[in-house]
Amino acid sequence: MDKTVRVWEISKGTCIRVVYGVSSQLCICFHPVNNNLLLVGNANREINAINFSTGRVISKLTCDNAVTALDIDHTGQLIFAGDAQGYIYTISVNSHTGSLSRTHKNKSCKSKSSVTTIQYRTFSLVARCPVLLSCAQDGNLYFFSIATNSHGYLTLICSLKLASPVQNIRASFCPLLSLEKGEFIVTGSGDSNVYFYDLARPKNSCVNKLQGHGSPVMGVAWNHGENLLASSDSDGTVIVWKRAKTN
């Protein structure tokens, strides 16, 4: 919110680079192929490609509204970005030069609420292709298939309304669980619980609920090994959950 992008060395907890912008920097991700490339969405309706070594903006693309969430595919060729009015953009990126160009603007979302989550997945057993998860401030969650041969065109597979939504709740795929039986996602909630949904079931039924927070749960994140889930609430409490072993 102070208009900066900051890169941290996690082992020491120190900031090693500060890039100053002209508006609030709302979302960020590293490029998966070019480690010298940062992709940043801001309140000034821009997506900036930043050279990590120099801190300079090497390319920018203007969207229609503030860019509030983004993710990039595993090849580093497609960016998926959500804005403050619920639209999702597909943007092609050159891994070497960082140049950006818009290919699609998705209008299938009924929500006009700000996008809080954009998450890409390489493959889905349900869709049999790459997929995208999107969540909006009003609690509407969308699950898309991605047409890689059509420059990342999105097709809506299903949607659901989350329990007790509050502003800025995040959602996430459940990586390992989804390879077993269905298409599981995990979300925060305004009623202080963490919910698991299976998008492969009729009516996208809730399959599990974690209780332990005392205020609305805003964020959820898996560790690299995908056996630990962290959830954070509006009072600043973080709970780490260990996935139970199954036979």
Automatic annotation (TrEMBL):
Signal peptide: none annotated. Keywords: Repeat, WD repeat. WD repeats lie at residues 1-18, 210-247. It comes from the Eukaryota. One of its GO terms (cellular component) is nucleus. It holds the Pfam family WD40. One of its GO terms (molecular function) is promoter-specific chromatin binding. PROSITE patterns: WD_REPEATS_2, WD_REPEATS_REGION. This is Anaphase-promoting complex subunit 4 WD40 domain-containing protein. It comes from Aegilops tauschii subsp. strangulata.
